[in-house]
Amino acid sequence: MSVILPGSTIGFLGGGQLGRMAAMAARTMGYDVHVLDPEAHCPARPLASQTITAKWSDGDAAARLAEGSDVVTIEIEQIPLHSLEAAQRNAPLRPGPSVLWTVQDRARQKEWLRDHGFPLGPFAVVRSAEETEAAVRAMGSCIVKSTHGGYDGRGQARVHEVERAAAAWHGIGAPVCVAEQFLSLDAELSVMVARSPNGEMRAYPPARNHHTHGVLTWSVIPGGFDDAIVARATEIACGIAETLDVVGLIAVELFLLADGTLCVNELAPRPHNTYHHSERACVTSQFEQLIRAVCGLPLGDTDVVRPAAIYNLLGEVWSGPTAPGIQDAIAQPGVRVHLYGKREARPGRKMGHLSACGDSSDLALQRVIDAYRRMASGTDGALP
Description:
Blueprint: E1 9-13, H1 17-29, E2 32-37, E3 50-53, H2 59-67, E4 71-74, H3 81-88, H4 97-103, H5 106-115, E5 123-126, H6 129-139, E6 142-146, E7 156-159, H7 165-172, E8 177-181, E9 185-195, E10 201-203, E11 207-212, E12 215-221, H8 227-244, E13 248-257, E14 262-268, H9 278-281, H10 286-295, E15 308-314, H11 326-330, E16 335-339, E17 350-357, H12 361-376
Parallel strand pairs: 1-2, 1-4, 2-3
Antiparallel strand pairs: 5-8, 6-7, 6-8, 9-10, 9-11, 9-13, 11-12, 12-15, 13-14, 15-17, 16-17
């Protein structure tokens, strides 16, 4: 295996906030950056020496990105297989097309996890209103999700009565959906695993996460889980990374059930919102770790140096009668603001996040919540 050393060029399929933050890490380490994204003014553009503006379905554009790169990685998994294969013909693509093909379709992802023995809650793949009704009748209350896209609460419907199942199916408007049984949860958590081309793996400690209407609100690390839960969650995540043959990063979102068992929610083979605090908390951030992994460098230490938390900043914070109180937020001890350079602040759009450190996870979380309250006061941002 050849190591791709600093001075080389990394191509990013995706120039959103994840690409932006990963490109910052790449630049710090001495790499050049090229980006392909459908948005001409994508968040990663200021970091890139070359930006190709093209649709994800444009295989020729993906090939051009790879021609000018020594390695290509991704910040979004919803890229058509033919574009991934076009990129791979010209440069190593990490993670590879087979990983992304498996993960980018929820039904395929669920079936892969089930077939390889990883723990899941009850689910059904449904292809009609009638099949959706049957799933709700069999499992009880469900969340119905489109198999493609639908992140941050979009493309989903909660169904508690069989009589509403058909309307949910038609409302989502996708030819195939996944119906997942509602579970009695004690907590939501995630584990980030990095894996290099030679099979070296490093897992980050589990993060504790809180969502509102399907969108991540805050995350904190360490998550405060007991040793048995940490060990089991890490075992599951590392098993998935190895079995799927990931090169790069994979975030494994998990549910801790009321009975103490764990089951997998979803996979994301890229940097992840629930590990943005790794920039503050860990020896090696998830973004530097991505660069190390895809370039074949030794992986970095994932230990937590100091507890940290993040709180997402959505477009609502900018939609009120007054400007967000950024100066009020960062006046709080240990707090930083991270903005993604997006031009339009639409409701629900992730515009940035706040981060905070503390001597404990509870203190870090309280600091970031307090900072959010101060920043969003007088705006339309929902307060915790």
